[in-house]
């Protein structure tokens, strides 16, 4: 065993518990604390020549852990900001319709459609895609997408009629979300 490995082992054994306690008091989870300690000791191994001897090593490790924690907290803050931006950018799911006979009948009619018909109607009504975009998603030409959509709408209208649903507006190629619902 080399002198460096033996020295690092002594530093690790003498300071692990204290550093873990330090990190636990400054993080939200045991896993985060363990990551901070691991990163701290990785830095110590990489910079072993810079680690002071004896009790000074503990203080040096605390300084490294402090910087690792600062990086950890900056990363968490970046994550939270990105998550907030994404949640604002992504359209929220519409609220469930109030229980009612018509909403139940529409849902039942929609569920009786084939997977492709449902996908077509959702791509137009919910995602707001146009025919070239739908063709790209489905791997067909815009003209084929238009024909498939026309047929899906007709099948949906027949299912709605079977359910006794009247007065439902036709789904246009680019409706608003409210119109699509």
TrEMBL record:
Keyword annotations: Sigma factor, Transcription, Transcription regulation
Occurrences of domain RNA polymerase sigma factor 70 region 4 type (ranges): 105-155
Keyword Transcription: yes
Organism the protein comes from: Mangrovihabitans endophyticus
Classification via SUPFAM superfamilies: Sigma2 domain of RNA polymerase sigma factors (SSF88946), Sigma3 and sigma4 domains of RNA polymerase sigma factors (SSF88659)
Keyword tRNA-binding among record annotations: no
GO MF entry, a single one: sigma factor activity
GO biological process, one term: DNA-templated transcription initiation
Protein name per Swiss-Prot or TrEMBL: RNA polymerase sigma-70 factor, ECF subfamily
Domain RNA polymerase sigma-70 region: 11-78
Gene3D superfamilies per UniProt: 1.10.1740.10, Winged helix-like DNA-binding domain superfamily/Winged helix DNA-binding domain
Pfam families reported for this sequence: Sigma70_r2, Sigma70_r4_2
Family (UniProt): Belongs to the sigma-70 factor family. ECF subfamily.
Superkingdom of origin organism: Bacteria
